[in-house]
Amino acid sequence: MRGSDEQNGGMFSYVVPEARVRPDHPLRPIRRMTDEVFAALSPQLTKMYSEIGRPSIPPEQLLRALLLQYLYTIRSERLLMEEIDYSVLFRWFIGLGMDDPIWSPTTFSKNRDRLLRSDIAAAFFDAVVEQARAANLLSDEHFTVDGTLLESWASLKSFRQTDREVSPPDDPGNPTVNFHGEARRNDTHQSTTDPDARLARKGPGKEAKLSYAGHVLLDNRHGLVANVCVTEANGMAEREAALLLLATAPRATTVGADKNFDVPSFVAAVRARGITPHVAQKVKYSAIDGRTTRHDGYATSQQRRKLVEQVFGWMKTVGGLRKLRHCGGELVDWQVTFAAAAYNLVRLRTLLARAA
Known about the structure:
alpha/beta, 6-stranded mixed β-sheet, single chain, Nucleotidyltransferase, domain 5
């Protein structure tokens, strides 16, 4: 017998979102880990809000929504609100009921700005790292350091001379700018949209873009991000940031890196801290020799250091950081730190399931 195609405009449903999500769904372990994180961060979150006034979006729900944006590569917050509205899975993960209204994109952005102005991303990241350490999944001795360029939201048309008076544009939305014959340099030019961004290129022959430099301290045991930071994009950013990140790992004994770190100043600074530099050797004028490369640990570090490329690849493709969504060094650092926490949650889900 043919079924009826009658469509009801409204109906009552007594099925909660929890019952609609299958028991082995990949988001379930991530939800459990985030619940533990928010339990630890609850006192810090409470201090961010007044005890009087109209209730705002719960910070736990807001952060879970932002986490979904990174995990599912949702390009904008307006689209994120639309996805949450009709997705039972997203409603369950955030903690919303089937009949709960969804926030407007403007309201969501206003409440998000409160978190962006705080250090909650770093606290969230640290809490995730502590979970990995408590599960004995994080090494305290063997690490890898590396950096990558992150393209700024600002356009090259906003990169103007700092000592030149800017005339009103002929088209405010897309002004005509002629850079022909003009040498653009970071010491004479600055972006009017994102002053913290710097003009940089990935390598010889590559185009220059307004960028930031993202840096990662990677655990060699399981490829977890032990620390992360963002600096301005300059020729020394990778090595300077690496030393800052290594300062947060007092028990480190070895550090792997690519050929960009094979310079005498970096190798000497690392050895002064009692850390063996397992950097990839240059063809000529290498700062390390057979006294370092002859050991089996060097070959292991060179093999494990490639895991850092998985972090950058995930953050730029799945995490949506191929082009940044915020301007300003502090906001970019917040965004990259939260993306690194999301990556660790994905890795921990796999590692904890394997250990069970």
